[in-house]
Design goal:
- The structure is a homodimer of 384-residue chains.
- With 384 residues, chain A is of the alpha/beta class.
- Chain A has 2 domains: 4-117 and 210-232, Thiolase/Chalcone synthase (Peroxisomal Thiolase, Chain A, domain 1, 3-Layer(aba) Sandwich); 123-207 and 235-383, Thiolase/Chalcone synthase (Peroxisomal Thiolase, Chain A, domain 1, 3-Layer(aba) Sandwich), CATH 3.40.47.10.
- In chain A, 36% of the residues lie in helices and 18% in strands.
- The first copy, chain A, contains 13 helices and 11 strands.
- Chain A has helices spanning 22-37, 52-56, 61-68, 85-99, 118-126, 141-156, 160-174, 188-193, 256-269, 286-295, 304-309, 326-330, 337-350; strands at residues 4-11, 44-48, 76-80, 105-111, 196-198, 201-202, 212-220, 232-241, 278-280, 363-370, 375-383.
- Chain A has a 9-stranded mixed β-sheet with strand order 3-2-4-7-1-8-11-10-9, sandwiched between helices. In chain A, strands 5-6 form a two-stranded antiparallel ribbon.
- In chain A, helix 4 (85-99) crosses helix 13 (337-350) and helix 7 crosses helix 10 (286-295).
- The longest helix of chain A has 16 residues, at 22-37.
- Chain A is globular, with a radius of gyration of 19 Å.
- Chain A starts with a strand and ends with a strand.
- At the A-B interface, helix 3, strand 3, helix 4, strand 8 and helix 9 of A face helix 3, strand 3, helix 4, strand 8 and helix 9 of B.
- Strand 3 of chain A pairs antiparallel with strand 3 (76-80) of chain B, so a sheet runs across the interface.
């Protein structure tokens, strides 16, 4: 297999982009990545999107979006793994370059979520859970993650305040990200007093409904010198699934798919959790970041809550997490999130992250999750 | 890149499978393939499915189906390219084995289409066309292919009878396929007198709405001797897109994505159209098989109609096409069709096709198409 590097990234400001269509936002971010790389064509394209069918009434978007990008006739592949669709698109683009099938591959992610009603969006998102065993009983994602939060709080004495501190930290980071949907700080009091969604999670514990896209350009590492930008090497890639239904899990306080996808990525990279300088992880709810930070091996089981309280996951902390603002502040257009993590990693590793810049950014990790942990994709990138 | 071979295939009888769910039919076909190969695990899985969201109210099926197959924790990837989703799943499984990332990979395809009303199914299928430029005007697939038929008949004098002969041939073949949805012969008169759908296409020119799944197991070619069955080698793989909207095409009488995907597969295989012994092609409508047989290079432009009339695409003809019965007789569960083509190729190349067996089956070609030709995937397989 060939070594692979990222040589361009792009994303627009995320939010409620009512004046733009699914096609518009994908092409906008893809062209930013193309310009960033300084290329004039791509050989192949992957697009991660959870549900263009239910959100936008359009399937077959590998073809639609290659066409609208002005690259008709190239292979255009849409992949879906719920909210991990973007991470999975990146993994397949990596595999296509690594295999030698193509040289210049675009990995994009997109979701246009605000063109349907709130209840239709909630239904569409619920189809990432087990509709036969969870959705049919009315369980939606805030409820599923609330059950995980209750289990974690019960076993490890994780506090309500520690959950809130995840949101506070990520909004503090996101306030420096001009592309974030909600680029402003919040306080622990605001989170705890915000409207209840599913006990113990309030609205400020939840990532928002967002329109947005993000993209990255991958090439063989030995071709990097031909392009505009310094390359960032993909040194590890891991993907795993777990039971989609929470009821079939042995343990609600850990995420098996996250553990396994991380183990596979660490092994490929020859790295350990303590080798990682900073990370972007899937904080779809505040409890998710706490559990993920444990399942990735950054902290022992039950250590995620105290770690955020101690500031260890702050931009200035031991292992900075979600310096982009995370899903919480930056927004969560589900199919695009995994690619936005790659955008942040790449900018940090180039030293281009401005006020969000972390001190040590040689090795970064991105973790992107589907549903309530039914799937997870982990990538480890290193400065070349 | 490593050479890759198919060592197991499976599919159930297709039809209106109201007693079985999406999960049931996928697992059923996957286990048939697993048994056929004689393996006890898989390393990774791809599933092609066009719209589990709109047809079945369930996304994230890479996770759902890995779990229900008893293989939770493996990577499970869902890919979508409308009716070419199955062919694309096979291509990605090939790429994963070829790259060295995994050794034993299952490629599956599935669609459960009869759990929604006919109008909802028509809507779901229409999302494979350009909903902004075609669907919004009420154009659905019979109408789009009818326009292609009119253009082809006008330019090349293709006759109404020649269209009907495609259906007659494929039903004649499918009458020998116990897994076909409609395993019975039809006559030219029956086709021409069947109810009009979109002039000149009648109901017997159209592939049906079907529930079904199909699967194949891929391994490195040098591992084949460790397994139950003779291997069938993947010697060519090609994928291409085209404008999704017919209005943007230069020519309605040829399919650019088919031409390009075939060119790429022929080049990889080092083969020409005349080297192909038999083929399974995407006859979603009778006109589709005629145009595809030209775009694959089996006949010159305009030669597809006369060729079917002369019996050249019969099982006993010069280039047997759709000996399985094709989409027309076998059924067309859109995400599964591309894998069912691989099932037929493999059985033919093993000499296991019974009454459907062709005389020369050393080199077979499968062509799977999305929408009205917005995407196409071609594979060429050869006896090892």
């Amino acid at each position: 297999m060939r070594d692979v590097a990222v040589i361009g990234v792009g994303m627009q400001k995320w939010g409620e982009l009512w004046a733009k269509s699914l096609r518009d936002i994908f092409v906008e971010s893809a062209l930013l990545a193309v310009d960033d790389a300084g290329i004039d064509h791509i050989d192949s394209m992957y697009v991660g999107c959870m549900s263009s069918g239910l959100f936008s009434g359009q399937e077959h978007i590998g073809s639609v979006l290659a066409d609208y990008l002005g690259q008709k006739n190239i292979p255009g592949t849409r992949v879906e793994s719920a909210c991990a669709s973007g991470g999975l698109a990146f993994r397949l683009a990596w595999m296509e370059v690594a295999s030698g099938v193509s040289d210049i591959v675009l990995a994009g992610g997109v979701e246009k979520m605000t063109d349907v009603s709130g209840s239709d969006a909630t239904y569409a998102l619920a189809t990432a859970a087990d509709m036969d065993w969870e959705g049919i009983h009315g369980a939606t994602f805030p409820g599923l993650y609330a059950m995980m939060a209750v289990a974690h709080m019960n076993r490890y004495k994780t506090t309500r305040e520690q959950l809130a501190m995840v949101a506070v930290k990520n909004h503090k980071h996101g306030a420096h990200n001009s592309r974030a949907q909600f680029p402003f700080p919040v306080t622990v009091e605001q989170v705890i007093n915000s409207v209840k969604v599913a006990d113990p999670l309030n609205i400020l514990d939840c990532s928002p409904i967002t329109d947005g896209a993000a993209a990255a350009i991958l090439v063989p590492a030995d071709m990097v010198s031909k392009f505009n930008k310094p390359g960032v090497k993909v040194i590890g890639s891991g993907h795993a699934t777990d039971t989609i239904s929470l009821s079939q899990r042995e343990d609600l306080t850990a995420l098996k798919a996250v553990e396994l996808s991380a183990k596979r990525a660490y092994e490929m990279a020859g790295k350990k959790p303590e080798d990682i300088d900073f990370a972007e992880v899937h904080d779809c709810f505040t409890i998710a970041e706490i559990i993920v930070s444990e399942s990735l091996g950054f902290f022992e089981a039950g250590g995620g809550g105290p770690a955020v309280e101690a500031g260890e996951t702050d931009r200035e902390g031991k292992i900075p997490i979600n310096c982009s603002g995370g899903l919480k502040s930056k927004g969560h257009p589900v199919g695009a999130t995994g690619l936005a993590q790659i955008v942040e990693l790449t900018e940090q590793m180039r030293g281009d992250a401005g006020e969000r810049q972390v001190d040590n950014s040689r090795i970064g990790l991105a973790q992107n999750m589907g549903g309530s942990g039914g799937s997870s994709v982990v990538h480890i990138l290193e400065v070349m």
